[in-house]
Task: structure prediction
Amino acid sequence: TALNEKSTALPFLEYPENLKGYVGDVGFDPFRFSDFVPMDFLREAELKHGRICMLAWTGFVAVDLGFRIFPLPEAYEGLTSVTAHDALVKQGAMGQLFLWMSVAEVISSVAVMQMLNEGSGRKPGDFGLDPVGFLKGKSEA
Result:
C-alpha cells in the first residue's frame, strides 16, 4: 500500500494491509484484527457465523410455519418463535443444544488448526461435505 492510503469504508482510518486482494475489499477492519489474527481464521469465523445465522433464521421461521419434529412432548404444543425459548429452557433442551454445539465446535477446531499450522490446503469453511455430488466437475472459479 502507498503511504497513508485510506480505507474506502472508513476514510478516516489507514487501509489494512492484510485485506488486499480479498473479495469485497473496501478496507473495513476498524479494530485491525487482520494485523494480529491470520486471515484464514477470520474468514473461517465469518463463514461459520453466517451459516449459524442462516440456520437460526430458518429455525425461527419454521416454528411459526408449524414445522415440528415428532414425537413432541406436550410442553412444546402451541409454541411460537417468541415463546419457544423460555419453554425449551424449562425442559432442558438448551443444555442439550449447548452440549452438541460444543462437540461440533471442538471437532471443527481440529480442521481449523490443521489449516493454520500444517498448510493442509484446506480452504476456510470447506469441510469437504458434498454428499449429493454438486461439486463434481466444477472448477475452482
